[in-house]
Amino acid sequence: MSHSPQGGNQEARSVLGALGSKYSAEILCAAETPKSAQALSDDIEIPIATCYRRIEELVEAGLLECEGRQLSEEGRRTSIYRRTIDEVEIDFSDDRPRFSEKRRTEAKNRLQDQRRE
To answer: Where is this region: Disordered (predicted)?
Structure first.
């Protein structure tokens, strides 16, 4: 696990805030493979507007990233998202929360994508 850098207090707050929102954890679980906001919304059965808000929070916290764009079934260009981490550990034993994370590697992403095909 990589530890957040010195001064990672803001980063810890951002991660805690994003994870504290309803449906954020479910979105991260569903985004193991690249998915559009619509697919994530459908997978976890939440309104698309809520899904977009959570995606924005998770991207800002660095837990989810846009992997690119693809054409939807309706022919519109849509962003595709995948989580950037597999685990987050939060330590509350100090005066401020600290966290460490296990980031996803490109190799793991490629392996996951090959399994889907």
So the answer is: 94-117
Comparing CA positions, the residue from 98, 103, 117, 106 lying closest to residue 7 is: 98
Paired residues of 58 in beta bridges: none
Q: Which amino acid is at 101?
A: E
Model pTM score: 0.76
Q: Quick one: 75 exposed, middle or buried, by C-beta within 10 A (0-12, 13-18, 19+)?
A: exposed
Nearest CA among 46, 44, 50 for reference residue 26: 44
At 100, which CATH number?
A: 1.10.10.10
- Cα separation, 1 vs 103, in Å, equals 8
Convert the pLDDT of each residue in 4-38 to its tens digit. Answer: 443 456 777 788 888 888 999 999 999 999 999 99
